[in-house]
Specification:
By secondary structure, this protein is of the alpha+beta class. It contains two helices and three strands.
Length: 98
């Protein structure tokens, strides 16, 4: 546990310039603010999506998921082609073929 963080009566406190304060009142690091903002945004999107009628949920999911899956499949296909080409080239060099 960091030296400036202690457990006082089962509540964590942080030592700041003004003395000990509850950890909830301490200013979070910059990246924590970003992660929290992204999580809050995603929660709002989920809430909006779940409040839509089912038909709209399906259509919206299809419009988003189908292109993402297609893009992922193309990316994986290209990656596999490159890996196979590298393995074939190494195998050919080891066996003396070109």
């Amino acid at each position: 546990m960091p030296r400036n963080l202690v457990n006082i009566e089962s509540g964590y406190c942080v030592k700041l310039a003004g003395g000990w304060q509850p950890a909830e009142l301490a200013e979070p690091a910059g990246w924590i603010k970003v992660v929290r903002a992204v999580a809050d945004w995603w929660d709002a999107v989920e809430l909006w999506l779940t409040q839509l009628p089912f038909v709209f949920q399906v259509v919206l999911a299809a419009l988003v998921v189908v292109p993402l899956c297609w893009g992922a499949a193309v990316g994986v296909d290209r990656l596999v082609d490159r890996v196979v080409a590298v393995v074939e080239a190494r195998t050919a060099r080891r066996s003396g073929r070109r």
